[in-house]
Amino acid sequence: MDIRQLKYFLTIAEEGQITAAAKKLWMAQPPLSHQMKMLEEELGVVLFERGPRQIYLTDAGKILFKRAKQIIELVDSTSKEIEDLKRGFRGTLNIGTVSSSGNILLNEGIAKFHKEYSGVKFEIHESNTYTLIDLLTKGLIEVGIVRTPFKNELFHCCYAKEEPMVAAMDKKYDWCGDKQIEMKELAGRPLIIYRRFAKIINEVCEFYDFVPEVFCHTDDARTSILWANAGHGIAIVPASAVTLASHENLCVKVIKEKKLRTKITAIWMKGRYLSLLAEKFINYFASI
Question: Which residues form the HTH lysR-type domain (predicted)?
Answer without folding.
Answer: 1-58
